[in-house]
Design a protein that fits this description.
The complex is a heterodimer of chains A (171) and B (174). By secondary structure, chain A is α+β, with helices and mostly antiparallel strands. Chain A has 6 helices and 4 strands. In chain A, strands 1-4 form a two-stranded antiparallel ribbon. In chain A, strands 2-3 form a two-stranded antiparallel ribbon. In chain A, strand 2 (33-36) and strand 3 (39-42) form a beta hairpin. The longest helix of chain A is centred in the middle third of the chain and has 15 residues, at 73-87. Chain A starts with 6 loop residues before the first strand and ends in an 11-residue tail after the last helix. In chain B, a hairpin with a 5-residue loop joins strand 5 and strand 6. The termini of chain B are close together. Classes of the chains: A alpha+beta (171), B alpha+beta (174). Chains A and B meet through helix 6 of A and loops of B.
Chain lengths: 171, 174
């Protein structure tokens, strides 16, 4: 499936981008490519096109190949989590909501993303809790709390106290 | 009547109209906040909302326990199991499938996919006769009886059954 979107990339990620030139039109953002399977892919001519950014601020918009440039796990996680939470749609069926490519990609990130999810859950309960049993293969939530997202969050945060993250993780 | 600030956001309402073309900007009202930003973290869906609950996500889930489903009710995603689930909350099927206001009773409508006949949504009738729906993880809206039906991917199919239960002091207040 091909997905199109615009991503805000933090300035630190621009070290992965080929080159930059001073913006001629500060308000104009350049389209660089389209997403593929939940990640943006780079058009062949990207290397010839500098990514423009606004004359003020530290954020620019563009479409870059996160996979190609090996964006750190926290950036990739934030992209996928935000995308899923904002694009999941209006179904009430958890399976339908979790079929979104961004959720699938997030789960595929594996244990590295668990601390990142737990960090978000500690801020507020979230449907991201559904990703944890699928990543870890575990489920600390008693059946009496199934579906109570706040209680599910609480059980997973408790579980997270004894979770050891893989070394390549989350900052 | 309390106005939800989200009801004043044209882009948000336009997004809902795009998903449900039978709606117009003026034919429905957003009635609550997006639960994802609810500071108390109450996350509930349309089924929970229809039975008057806001503390859990209701759906027949045979696997991991992502959602709540009444004990003893089949976890097959069938109309029969949804009817049984609503029955645990005191609802009974209206034999005439009449969606009109019935004094002393509150009604719910269960939607099914037009092709598979599997349940997709439930809406609750409000005291003045219009209907209230929780749109998945997103807004609650007040709408007309037929407004969310349709076979587009974003729509909820057709209304398969109307159920009702006697209004009690603990019934949901509009």
């Amino acid at each position: 499936m091909s997905l199109a979107a615009t991503v805000e990339i933090p300035e630190s990620a621009f070290s992965f981008v080929h080159s930059e030139t001073p913006p001629q039109d500060p308000g104009v953002y350049q389209t660089l490519g389209t997403f593929k399977e939940g990640f943006p892919s780079v058009t062949p001519s990207l290397s010839d096109r500098p990514l423009r950014r606004p004359s003020s601020g530290r954020i620019a918009r563009g479409r870059v190949d996160l996979a190609q440039f090996q964006v750190p796990a926290p950036v990739r996680y934030r992209f996928l989590a935000t995308r899923w939470l904002t694009e999941m749609g209006r179904s009430s069926d958890p399976k339908v909501l979790m079929s979104h490519p961004a959720f699938q990609r997030l789960v595929q990130m594996g244990p590295a993303v668990v601390p990142l999810i737990l960090r978000d859950l500690a801020k507020k309960p979230s449907l991201l809790v559904w990703a944890l049993p699928r990543i870890t293969g575990q489920n600390p939530v008693p059946s009496t709390s199934s579906g109570n997202i706040r209680e599910m969050n609480r059980h997973w945060l408790e579980w997270g106290k004894s979770f050891s993250a893989p070394p390549e993780i989350a900052r | 009547m309390t106005t939800c600030p989200l009801d004043d956001e044209p882009e948000r309402k336009q997004a809902i109209v795009r998903a449900f073309p039978k709606l117009t900007i003026d034919s429905f009202r957003i009635t609550s906040y997006d639960s994802l930003s609810d500071p108390e973290g109450k996350l509930y869906n349309c089924i929970a909302w229809a039975v008057g609950k806001t503390d859990a996500w209701w759906w027949p889930d045979p696997d991991i326990g992502d959602a709540h489903w009444p004990s003893g009710v089949s976890k097959e995603p069938s109309l029969a199991s949804f009817i049984a689930a609503f029955a645990t909350e005191g609802f009974e099927v209206c034999s005439d499938n009449d969606p009109s206001l019935d004094p002393g009773f509150e009604k719910v409508a269960i939607y099914v996919d037009s092709t598979t006949k599997q349940p997709t949504h439930a809406a609750r009738q409000m005291k003045h006769g219009r209907w209230s729906s929780k749109l998945g993880p997103e807004e609650d809206i007040e709408h007309g009886y037929d407004d969310l039906t349709g076979d587009r991917e974003s729509e909820f199919g057709e209304i398969a059954v109307i159920m009702r239960r006697a209004i009690t002091p603990s019934s949901v207040s509009d």
